[in-house]
Amino acid sequence: MNKIWTTAVGGVLTAALIAGCGAQQGGHEGHGASHGAEQEARHGAAPADIAFAQGMIPHHQQALDMARLAPQRAGSPEVRDLAARIEAAQGPEITTLTGWLRNWGAPTGGGGHDHHGGMPGVMTADQLAALAASGGAEFDRLFLELMIAHHQGAVEMARTELAEGTDPAARELATSITTAQQSEIEEMNGLLARR
Q1: Which of 26, 49, 73, 89 could make an SS bond with 165 (beta carbons 3.0 to 4.6 A apart)?
Q2: What is the pTM of this model?
Q3: DSSP track, 28-60
Q4: Domain 45-193 adopts which CATH fold?
Q5: Contacts of 123 (CB under 8 A, 6+ apart)
Q6: Chain-centre distance of CA 113, in angstroms?
Q7: 168, 113 in Cβ contact below 8 A?
């Protein structure tokens, strides 16, 4: 009985192995498709999930850099309050995104803002310098204008994740970013209109 059972199990395992190899060798629609599948298997996330996390970290970091200027430079309490809320929301999200990348075995990135100039909504060095050199009502105007563009970029990145990503937690965060930042865009447009 044991010999029959062992033979049956061995046959099933062999069939599964052959089927697995056939699935790997078949369907060579292109190197990109198989490379994407390998990357997904290796990292436990789709390439879009990894790109979302890697891109959103420096994007959020720039928003934090901008927000941290507000306590000393903003002219209105509304702008200071908004900046504090942005910092409180996006700081923990950076920690979450970094943790995902580590769990997926993917690089967490690095570099600095200069390496992410093509990212939607990212400020240039000159724009950041102008913001840092301003104060009062001028700071408020620049901050709101720049942060609106920055938030629009984050929403665009989040929508790409929702269209192409597969990781449930990453997609959930992308939905949250879209909702929160669209609401803040409306708030900032309102503050600009009242100036």
Answers
A1: 49
A2: 0.75
A3: -S-HHHHHHHHHHHHHTS-HHHHHHHHHHHHHH
A4: Ferritin (1.20.1260)
A5: 62, 66, 113, 131, 146, 149, 150
A6: 15
A7: no
